[in-house]
Here is the input.
Amino acid sequence: MFGIGVPELGLILVIGLVVFGPGKLPEIGRAVGKSLNEFKNASNEPTEEKKEESVVKAVEKNEEPPKKEAK
Here is the structure.
């Protein structure tokens, strides 16, 4: 994904442990996870709105709604 291997990830974790301490790491991880999840949901929102609009337009025209794409 970002070209980060096991040694680099280990170094990042060790630096995080030294800087923040073992008590803060779970809180920081939780906050980062929530932030990434919110970003992912926000980036998917426009495509969901477009799909809903196309379904509404199809229903208004008495057509068959577009089929969902396989992921």
The mean pLDDT is 80. The CA atoms of residues 33 and 44 lie 17 Å apart. The helical segments are 6-20, 25-60. The radius of gyration is 21 Å.
